[in-house]
Amino acid sequence: MKKNKGEKMNTGHSGKTINVVIAGVGGQGSITSGQIAARAAMLHGTEVAMSEVHGMAQRGGSVMSTVRYGSNQSPVIPMGEADFLLGFESLEALRYSPYLRSSGVAIVSDQRIIPTIEALKKATYPTNIFAELKIQTKSAIFLPALEIAAEIGNPRLIGSVLLGAFSAFMDFSASIWKQAITDIVPHATIERNLQAFRAGYEFTIDADVLSAEKPVTVNDSVFITA
Amino acid sequence: MTRKFLMGNEAVALGAFHARAKRGTGYPGTPSSEILDVFNRLGGAAAWAPNEKVAAEVALGVAFAGTRAFVTMKHVGLNVAADVLFTAAYSGVDGALVFVVADDPGMASSQNEQDTARYAVAAGVPLLEPADSQDAYDFTRLAFAVSERWKIPVLIKLTTRVCHSGTVVVPRPEDAEAPVAKFNRDIKSHVMVPGHARPAHRQLRKKLAEIAEWNIKEGPNRRIEGCGDLGIITAGVAFAHAKEAAPDAAFYKVGMSYPLPMKNLIEFCNDMKRAVVIEENDPCMRDAILAAGGNLSHVSEEMRFGELNVHRIRGLLSDDTPEVQPVPSGKPPGLCAGCPHDRVFRILKQNDCIVAGDIGCYTLAALPPLEAMDTQICMGASIGMGLGLRHALPEKDARRVVSVIGDSTFVHSGLTGLAEMAYNVPKTGHVLLILDNGTTAMTGQQEHPGTGRTLDAEPASQLDYAKVAKAMNIPNVFVFDVVKEKDAFEQALKNALAKNELTVIIARRPCVLAAARLGAQKKPKGGAL
After folding, report:
1. Is residue B399 domain-shared with residue B492, that is, in the same domain?
2. Is B523 near chain A, with CB under 8 Å?
3. Is position B154 within any domain?
4. Which residue in chain A is spatially nearest to B161 when comparing CA positions?
5. pLDDT tens readout for residues A119-158
6. Same domain for B244 and B183
7. Are residues A56 and B333, on separate chains, in Cβ contact within 8 Å?
8. Is there a contact between B237 and A74 if contact means CB atoms under 8 Å apart?
9. Which end of chain B is more exposed for a tag (fewer CB within 10 A), N or C?
10. How many structural domains is chain B composed of?
């Protein structure tokens, strides 16, 4: 298992498509993270397509964006074909988990944003999201992204924390990610975003991935180099 | 030139900039709203108009002056600008005029999923349908060229998925300078009275026949051979989905879908054991090909509902098995924390009002938790529909009716409604609330004639709604800050509902999001994408 940590998803010239679904709530910055993930591919020389659905999103609704690496056609990821799910919020991750393949990896912030409809007691926020996610995929990483982001200085850095965690699975170099972040985020926030990115990366690398007791698991199959 | 990663809307803006468009106009509407802002950032002259009709008229004026213009809007915006389009097709243009219209199949953020392709056929103007950002760039360049060559307005139909998807674009060198604007007195072409319009209509059909010939020979269409029995005719982003759903099929990717390259399409159908049309929204190409005698296989009527994707197309191609589409339903949007609209609607609910609503963030008041809006159809409808309800309902209920409209929507389509209110007064009078949050909030906080700033944040004249109402002889006109003067606002509303008179209340409080944005610095101009 340990040996797999060094192996990364090859986005280079294998012709393989890597599909990433990014799910969040309006205002969390999930679209910006998608832009960074796409920018990284451009810098790496990989074909990439990104798609986002917004509009009413700024008003706190669900926001889903997708990034597809490789020579695919449609900008939209078919249901059940995502290799990664980046969840900015636990329930949103669960909502979009049907997009994951059974071999896919969910990287999820453990933050919970209670929707108005639950506040009205017309619906219930699920309590066992981790267990439910595990039905969709064998590999799920829950990380305290909000806590990490707040420690660095701004809750809005969760996107970079999640991207850092995601980067541990990808073969883009650190300098490419750094450039992509620098190109996209507001100038004044570059340093803190880079810090958040590193924290997310280190969390994934340091996580005790062999422990079945904790909500941090990684499945062998996702580390196959194409 | 260097490769760029661009969203479809950015690609259109860059295409227009490289085509040396002299002016871009429009009215914000998801998913089209980013185009003008990007065009402005590139250094182009861009401005928001009060509505799409005015925007199209300004652009047509630029094109009559012999140079290049474009106008952007969402699909329902073309309903407002259609009056311009239909007769501009007859008059033609001296320079170039491009309508960039963004459809919203699946209605991510719209009240219907009407198909702009129908307008191209109805008005008689060429239609281009980009599939990705490269197409969006190329077709924008081409649209200006076709418009200028045949002196005809050209329509580009985008869709949400093209506008808001990013792919790599390889730009081409910019055009040489656009033609210099000059006044050309040509009353026969520019004044569409019946005597001029009759020959203009014949001229339009002649142009379209020529364009159809050109489209067959050198149009932006692509035939891709496959290795099976199946041939797929498609356009727009449906091509991308279909190519992934059926990688072995042969394809005819239509770039200009009106007038269709019919000869090529019939040939393609004849060469295939089984030919189908995969298109989003209405079956426009299918019907035209069938009418021309093309041999097409049946595809389920399901295709016209919502956005297509790889999964759905796989289902449609595997012979009409009922589609299972377990797309998760998202968390519903709601008004932001601290939104001033929230207070207004709470008060309306407490007072048991019947609310004729309108289009903007405040439409969210129709959803839980507020559920305090009773109608919403189109831009500006709150006033006319509220008046209709007042005319028809028994007095007790008529008194409860309030029309509620946002500031940008009021400028867009409410002024004429207010004139109607002043002119044909219901027996119980009427109450209009203008929710003035100082921005076009829903589409991303664009400026409008009531904000006092232009598209690029320069100071501008600011429409005074209270003065407008007074000028239209509304006897009772009030302005309240709905946070600081909540009680006074509620009292004024109660008084107005009790009277048989007309009242306009301007509920003023800046949008919480726009307030933050205005604190930030202006975006630099002339930036690279």
Report:
1. yes
2. no
3. yes
4. A51
5. 555 667 777 777 777 777 778 888 899 999 999 999 899 9
6. no
7. yes
8. yes
9. N
10. 3
Dihedral sign for Cα A165, A169, A172, A173, please: positive
Best residue in B9, B165, B237, B239 to probe A by mutation, most A CBs within 10 Å? B165
CATH of the domain at B124: 3.40.50.970
Looking at CA atoms only, how far is residue A164 from chain B in angstroms? Answer: 22
**Nearest alpha carbon to residue A179 among A48, A40, A56, A18:** A40
> How high is the mean pLDDT of chain A?
80
Q: Are residues B140 and B204 in the same domain?
A: yes
Could you tell me if B235 and B173 lie in one domain?
no
Structure tokens at B167: 């792919």
Lowest-pLDDT choice from A71-85, A210-224, B27-41, B117-131: A210-224
Question: Could you tell me the two tokens for B449?
Answer: 């004639």
Other residues' Cβ atoms within 10 Å of the Cβ of residue B230: 18
Within an 8 Å CB–CB cutoff, is residue A180 touching chain B?
no
Cβ B492 vs Cβ B499: under 8 Å: no
Catalogue all structural domains in chain A, each as residue range(s) with its CATH number: 14-112+127-225 (3.40.920.10)
Comparing alpha-carbon positions, the chain B residue that sits nearest to A51 is B165
Helix (H), strand (E) counts: chain B: 21, 18
Does residue B53 sit in the same domain as residue B198? yes
B263 and B404 in a single domain? The answer is: no
Q: A170 or B152, which is more confident?
A: B152
Residue with tokens 């203009």: B200
Structure tokens at B350: 């407490």
The residue range of the domain holding B418 is: 340-518
Partners of A54 on chain B (C-beta within 8 Å) are 30, 108-109, 164
The pair of three-digit structure tokens given for residue B382, joined into one six-digit string: 């709150």
From the CA of A67, how many Å to the nearest CA of chain B?
9
Measured between beta carbons, the chain B residues lying within 8 angstroms of A35 are 166
Instruction: For chain A, say whether B519 makes contact (Cβ under 8 Å).
Output: no
Task: Indicate if B422 and B287 belong to the same structural domain.
Answer: no
Domain match, B416 and B365 both: yes
Pair of tokens at residue B396: 């007790």
- Asked if residue B199 has a cis previous peptide bond (ω within 30° of 0), the answer is no
- Whether the CB of B423 is below 8 Å from some CB of chain A: the reply is no
Asked if residue B333 is part of any domain, the answer here is: no
- Structure-token pair, residue A51: 């798609």
Domain finish residue from B184, B218, B252? B218
> Is there a domain that residue B327 lies in?
no
